[in-house]
Input
Amino acid sequence: MKSFWLIPSLLFVLLSCDQGLAPPPPELPTGIRGTVVFVSDWPPPDSVQELRVVAFQRFPFEDSAGIIAEVLAGRAFFSDTLPRFVDSATYEVLLQAPFPDTLRYVAVAWRYGPNLFGDWWVAAVYGSFSQDTVVPRKIPVIPQTVVESVDMRVDFRHLPPQPFE
Output
């Protein structure tokens, strides 16, 4: 007789939980994604150590030490290394919380020599530039959203002005 009441009670508990003990849904990624197109011949292989897309919360920089300070303070976000000697490459830069409200400078960074902290040039900027000015395009950060089509063009023969010149 006791087992008769156990079955309806168990059914009630199972039906009324409504996933109350289930883990919360996973957080969706936050960041940017795009394609880098290489429109000129590549430099010699020994002068292309790595390429990455990097996104900064702050801009402008006073000098290269300002960029290093942003990196060390965790206010810069990087893609994985891009493939070299290709016509184009897709990338993704994922951000970590706490998220900035805006990315103010997104660029393709090119390490041309062995010095990890010094041998870098900006190869492309998301935005526009002329011979002597850069106007970076700001990207609002929307938590749990990856902003698509943050595309850039690299012309190794005509680099944008460097951010600390």
